[in-house]
Design brief:
The protein is mainly α and about 100 residues long. The protein is built from 1 helix and no strands.
Length: about 100
């Protein structure tokens, strides 16, 4: 049983090729996993920044609503004061005409 050298070299070459292919696949998967984790981390950070921006906008909107309510209250007081002033002016005019 003599094994031909060319057959033995072929079998060894195939084994080496399989080992190299498996090693490359494992390395590629590890690299892909690392890249996906990095991309996912970047995405999470961006979403957190967007969330912070939205929370700031909500806070600003609450403050604006409060300011608008204060302005409404002041406008109502001013309108009431103006109405009272008109009544007093009308009363003074009617007294001066008599």
């Amino acid at each position: 049983m003599s094994i031909d050298i060319s057959i033995m070299l072929s079998v060894i070459s195939v084994c080496v090729a399989v080992v190299v292919a498996v090693t490359n696949i494992k390395r590629s998967n590890a690299h892909d996993s690392h890249r996906e984790a990095s991309d996912l981390t970047t995405l999470i950070v961006k979403l957190e920044n967007i969330n912070e921006g939205i929370n700031e906008i909500k806070s600003d909107m609450r403050n604006m609503k409060s300011d608008i309510q204060d302005l409404r209250d002041r406008l109502i007081i001013a309108e009431q004061s103006l109405k009272s002033a008109h009544h007093r002016i009308n009363a003074i005019k009617s007294e001066s005409e008599n």
